[in-house]
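Let's practice the habit of predicting before peeking. Look at the sequence and jot down your guess about where helices and strands might fall. Then scroll down.
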Amino acid sequence: MVPGARIELATPAFSGRRSTNELPRQLNFISLVAACSRVNSPKIFPISAHLWSTRIDPMATTTNLKSSDIIQQLDALAKSAASGEALMKSIVAFLHEKLTRYNWVGFYMLEREGGDTLVLGPFKGTMTPHTRIPLNQGICGAAASSGKTIVVDDVNSDSRYLACSLETKSEIVVPVFVRGKVVGELDIDSHFLAAFGPDDRKLCEHAAATLGKFLESHS
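Done guessing? Here is the structure:
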């Protein structure tokens, strides 16, 4: 493409969700909007060949933080949290913002000690119809029942998956323990296949353990 050439390009409106159709790096979107505002038409603007050819890595973190940095910040959230509810809200907001491939992040907690139903707690992402999940249903139920982390690289190949979004491709569910008993879980969906590798598992298990330790020390 010749630099300075004029092309038709509709600027996308961000929905607050991180879908595969949205640019994961805000810098490039802001640059496009700035260029658009300098011309008369809101849809036609000059764009350089360099900007147009820039490749976006959808698996990159928003801020390029290392896993160790994120773990430290999770620990800091626990130290400043006023309650378990507040900590859950902080954790889901933090992970959803910092990791672009974490498209839905939320906690499910057991309705009561020894109960058989998970109830949706704080979350970030689109609304889900699954606000209550029996322990004998879904990947969430399986993780809570077994007390083990479950990573699903392709939800469409797992019969346990409770469909809630056509965009969801992979999922990780990590149990939350208090005094050795499962009290809930951290559930994260991604719009990318096999989004959760060993580092993600370590990070998510630390987030769940951070909540568990907080609940232990405040009960």
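How did you do? Strands lie at 6-8, 44-46, 104-110, 117-124, 132-134, 150-152, 170-178, 181-190.
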